[in-house]
Amino acid sequence: MVVITYCVEYAQSQKSVCLKCNKVIPNKSLRVGRMERKSEKEKKKFAKYGWYHFKCFEVPEVMTKIPVHLIRGQVDLLDKDKLRLERVIKLGVGASWSQIVEQHKKKVKEEEEAAAAEALENGTPLPAKTTSKDEDMESDDDNDGSASEDFTAQLTGEIDRKQERKNRKANQLKAKTDGAKVSKKQNKPGKGGKDTHMGSKGPAKSLTAVEKVIAASRADSQKKLEQMKSKFGKK
Question: Where is the composition biased (Polar residues) (predicted)?
Answer without folding.
Answer: 145-155
